[in-house]
Structures are given as structure tokens and as C-alpha cells.
Amino acid sequence: MIPQNIIDDIRRSTDIVDLIADYVKLHPSGRNYKALSPFTQEKTPSFVVSPDKQIFKCFSTGKGGNVYTFVMEMEKISFPEAVELLAKRTGIDISRFTKQQKIQNEENESQTGTLRWAARTFHNTLESPKGVQGLSYLTEARGLSRAIIQQFGIGYAPDQWDNLINEAKQASIPLANLTELGLTTHHKERGSWYDTFRNRVIFPIFSIGGQVAGFGGRTLDSDPRTPKYLNSPENPLFEKSKLLYGLHAAKDEIRRSESALLVEGYMDVLALHQAGITTAVASCGTSLTRYQAKILQRYTNRVLFVYDADPAGKKSMMAGIDTLVTEGITPFVLELPSGDDPDSFVQRAGKEEFLRYSEKNKQSFIDFQIRFFTQSGNFAQTDVKAKAIRAITHTIALIPDRIRQELYLQELSEKLGISFSSLKELLVIESTMRREKNIPGENSMRARPTPVPEKKMSVLERTFLKALLESSFYGNAVLEFAASHENMLTLPNPLAQNIFTHLIRRYHSLSGSPNDHLDIISEISMFSEPEARNLASGLLLDQPVSKKWHEQTDLNAENARQCLASFLDAFKSLVLEPLIRQKEILTEQIRNENDAALETELLREKITLDRKIRKTSDDLRAMIRSIIDNR
Known about the structure:
Number of helices: 27
Distance between the termini: 38 Å
Radius of gyration: 31 Å
Largest sheet: 5 strands, antiparallel
Strand content: 5-15%
Shape: globular
Mean pLDDT: 84
Strand order of the largest sheet: 1-2-3-4-5
């Protein structure tokens, strides 16, 4: 097991703002950052990141936590895998804690581990005698270097029915894992299993964080009946519409250069990266989806389409333009010479010529659309031309920025010789039709989900928990008191009690050194219930218990004192609350009791209860005064 202090070091070395910026586009908002939620689709930002406290909270879904919980949520991995991923990111070596048996056990138990194992197995096969055919294809036929093959983890599945199955048996990988991930297929007639990928070059497809999500396989079989490309089947870890091939390697350069290069295939991405053009990504063999456009928009507002110049490629670009502009991205289009694709062009001409050609020949999306309809003959007749103009205006209507709409409309008016007022009228019609048209589809916006309600909790319980959580930033005073008087208090809300019990248990586990105290941000990822993590994150992002804290000169000391006072006051109220509620019930029973003897008995109980309430209140008040005065 990795020691807790190492886990804490990894967390402290990972800046949550830098991490989350790899997944969403953050905007400053006071002391925090805000963004559109990465967990759902929304129009108004509800996702908040606190650099001070190193936590996040998504108010549309209720999810929250620290760097570990964010990575676990986004990459769909376990806590140990999140620790390993962030350790690599921060450069902290944890190899001495990850024994081979432990690694193997994790791979046996998790689908992400199985995907990593499969990727290594395919790559090792490519480098072995079994992979001669695949390696020859990549290096000789396609001109890839060993360095780029290694960087992207390209592999090979030999022309055998059970090579991966046999490798899995030796590695103790369950057949069920292979089946769930689509790496094996069941033969119904024979009642047996066989490898899904056979005689194919294998391209691992990575998530943004660099985790293997699935595979694409290019056949080396000359049989025309064999599909040229085969992808992993859709599953919770592999959704093609939400992945961009090469983004894990391109994201930093895309952000730096403020531009992305969008191509069609794996080989295009690899050839461009090999040439040093490292902003290239591909849409995994599918038409560009709304989700993929949203991912690109996190890194840049400018995308250059470089699809094949054949009719199919041009139609894909036409559809992709609409998808990109809807997300506020400005698309440009580059048409390569006839017979060329990005792979062949850059390998023949080289990086500098590719960049020179791109700069000289890239078109605005309006110029490309006009050229597309002109070449298609759509501008030859008046009625067909009107439809083409409506199609271009429809694209402009998709742009969310009204000023940009006006500018593009003026550009279209000048280039087509049509009055601006006529195009403006058409734009209004297209915008109205778009608002009224509510047909669900792959590229339509999903309805924003109703925020997940937290279990009903009183204001008093929230105040108590917030003070308890905040107190950990200033030492153990509050936790020490809470641990000493734990038996006096049971929180009515189960979630609140879960957090309270966890913190008390963790306090007792400390070594006893006066310098030891809980790192509450690390503790968040250790809560047994996800709802507890979400609640704690939200409470820590709320306004401080005392708004006067930031006005104090001795900030930490006053913060700690105010936190303790608030906690103790809430503690007192929570202890007295059930007694007071009991008194209210007794009072109501006395008021409604008609039997004199029973009424007398109830009055005696009430007198006893009143004394208990007074004594408890006095004892708590004296105890609190003593604690506060001694701090």
C-alpha cells in the first residue's frame, strides 16, 4: 500500500486548477474559477474550482471533491489508479510501493487495468517475431518511425484465433473482462471464444488523461470482405463520440498555439505528429460530434479541417462546420491536392511545405461553403441557389455570438451580391426555426439534468459540519473536543453522521504528535459515500463561518477561534435539540390529557426534563466558555 503521506504529497503537488484545465476551459470568478460542467451539458456555468482549498464542486450534478475524485470521475478509474496517474503527472516516484503482484491484482480486478494490459500485449507482440508483418507495414509501407510507434503505443494482433486469450490466461486476466471490453467474441455455433482483433495493426485510443479507453484495428488482410477498420464496441469506458484520437498528446500544443488541426484517420494524426505538427487530432473514424466539438472548445476557438478532398470528405467537412460553429469555434478548411491526404502530403513534402501550403490555401468556412455549392452546381439555377444560400445562412444562425453573426452575414452579402437586409431576414427565419425545432439526436443538446438533491439536512447540522471541516485547517482543537464528547451527539441526518464518524475515526488514528492534524482535502476522497464527498466539497466552498475573518490582523488565530466558537455553539444546540423536542411533545401531551392522574405523571416528567435541560445547558455553556477562554 502507498503510505498516506505519499498520497498527500501527490495531492499537494497537483494543482487542481492546472489539472482541471486539461478537461474544461476555466474562467476566473473572484477568488475561484468557473466553467461549464464536464459531467453534463449546460449553458450556464455551475462548475466551481477553488485554488485556495484545492477542491471543486459541480452545482448542477452535486459532484465535488479534490484532484483524486475529479480524475476518478473523468477517467472512470479507481482511487489507486488515480494516485498512480497523478504521481506520473507530478513526477513523484511510487514504484517502490507498487510491487508487481499488486499491479497484476489491480489489472485482474479492473477493466482499465485490462485495457492497459491489452495495450502492452499488442505493443509487445508488434516488437516480437509474431509482429514482423505489422511492423513492416507501419515502418516500410506507412513510413512511421519506431519513436512514434512507441509514443502512441501502436501494436499488432497476429492472425490467430486465440492469441490474446492465451496471453490473458498466462496473466490471470479474466475472460469476462476481455468479453466486456469487446476484446473477445463468442462463436454461437461452436460455443467458443475467439480474439476480436486478428491480423490487424492496433491503435490504442486514449482518454484526455492518457488512459487507454479502447482500440482501433486496421486490417492487413487483402480480402475485400474484411472490414478495413474495426473499433472496440461501445461501452462505459469507450464512447467514440466523446473521444478524439491523439488529443492526449496534442492538447498542450493546441492550447499554446490556440489552434487545432482536425483530420480523419489515425495515420494522418501519426504522420503529422511525426513531422512535428503536434496539434493534429482525429474524430476516431466517425463524423464530428457535438461532444467532440465541446472538448476541442476547451483548448481553442480555432480549428483547421484537413479532410480528404473526395466528395465524402467534403460532405463530412460541411456537417462538421455546423457542429463546430454551434460550440463557438471558428472553423477553417484546407483542401489538399487531388489524390493526397494529410499522411501522404506531409510525408512527401515535409513539415515546412505543409505549413506553407496550409497558410496559403486555407479557406474561411463561408468561402468553403460557397465553393462547395458552386462546384456542386447549386449556384447554376435560381431555385437551387436559393436553397444553397439558406444552407449557408443556417450555418451562420448556429453561431452563438450575435456580433459574429452580423459580421459573417455582411461577408456573405458582399461575396454573393445579395442585400444584407434580405440575408438578415433569412437569418431571423433560420434562428426561429432552430429554436422551435426540438428533435433529439446525436448532436442535439441533452437536457440539463435536475440537480441531485442532497439528503434533507437542517441548517444547524450544516453549520456544525462546516465548522468541523473548516477547523481542520487550523489544527486539532475542534476534532479533539468532538472526539472527547462523541457519545453526547448523534446527528439526525445519516450523511452528516457519516462525515462526523469518519473524521472522529481518522482523528483517533493519528499518532498523537501535537503537529499531526488531518488534511481535510485529502480526507474528502476517503469518505465511504460519494454523497459525503459531494456534501463536504460544497460546504467548504460556501462562505466562511464568520464573514469577519478576512478583516482580522492575526488571520489564522482568529479564524481558528471563530471556527471553534461556531462549532461549539452548533454542538450545544445539537445536544439540546432532542431534549427540547422531547419537552415540546410532553407539553402537547399535557395540554391534551383529560385523565388527572396521567396529567400529574406527565407534569413530573416535564419538571425532571426541565432540570436536565437547564443542567445540560449550564454545563455546556461553562465548558464552552472554558475552552474559548483557554484558546
